[in-house]
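Re: the 341-residue chain
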Amino acid sequence: KLSTHVPTTSVVMMSVQGEADYLRRSMLAGAREFLVKPFSSDELTGSIRQVYSREREKASRIVAAAPAPRPEDEVDGQVIAVFSPKGGVGRTTMAVNLAVAAAQDLGKKVCLVDGSFQFGDVGVLLNLNPKNKSIADLVPELEQGEPESLDTFVINHSSGIRVLLAPPSPEMAELITTAGIKRVLDALRRMHDIVIVDCSSYFNDLTLAILDTADVILTMLTLEITSIKNMRLFLEVADQLGYEDGKVRLVLNRADSTLGIRVSDVEQSIGRKVDHTIVSDGRSVVYALNRGIPFFVSNREAQVSQDVLRLANAVAGVHHPSAAEAERKVPAKGKSIFAWR
């Protein structure tokens, strides 16, 4: 009880019994040394000094290993999760170009994390070698204590961003735990202004850990009925999880597509306003994607690039809404055009 309630106290056990089992039980109870009676005063003095010396050395190592105190005015960076409850809506492309826009035009120190741990594509879009170290290598390191530098794990990209890749093979995703991903994000946000995470569309414990940790969740959808239906379901889950409206922001990609569904139809169905819109520009986007270059770099004057820059300002700088966003209001709730609503 003494070693439990006063852990800084060192216990020296003394007994007439010297059997190995008795010694083992004493050590398990918290004893730092064991003396068998009778013993001399020199033996007692020597044991006390040895215990004191060991405990002092142990305390010194703990203090030396502890991280240096952070300045009071130092602020953690922002974690932005880019998520969609449906694949194929341009989530990874958006995460990559949003990171580049924030780094190049806003002057932010940005780290892009591939949070699709089984089938991540961030490295492909940035033409990075998949043999580089990944988040699966970093998680075990952080479990043993934060390394002095993360440069071994994080790649400096020519666009000005830093990148933490997903594991090179799907089975390595099993090495990543919810506690591990939270440690990774906490470590990265201390070193960067913005940490952008490209989340998997699969809603599991790891994705939930990222969404919980994030300051902002950019949730993407398109003018497609399955995307709208999944978004509605996600918003219900987000409400149950207690996410505030300001944390979850809706990004409508390919918003100018003429597919028979209007933005107002989407807003009426999901019961809230779309926060940001991105135009469709398949030519610029696909051309850049196939070259392994962000379209914000290859064609920064394109409207799609300007929309991404506006989004970057909205989440990390000053928001300048487009005319369409400023004028659009959520229509009054009524009968939805969708049968499932």
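Strands lie at 11-15, 31-36, 78-83, 110-115, 155-156, 162-164, 194-199, 216-221, 248-252, 276-277.
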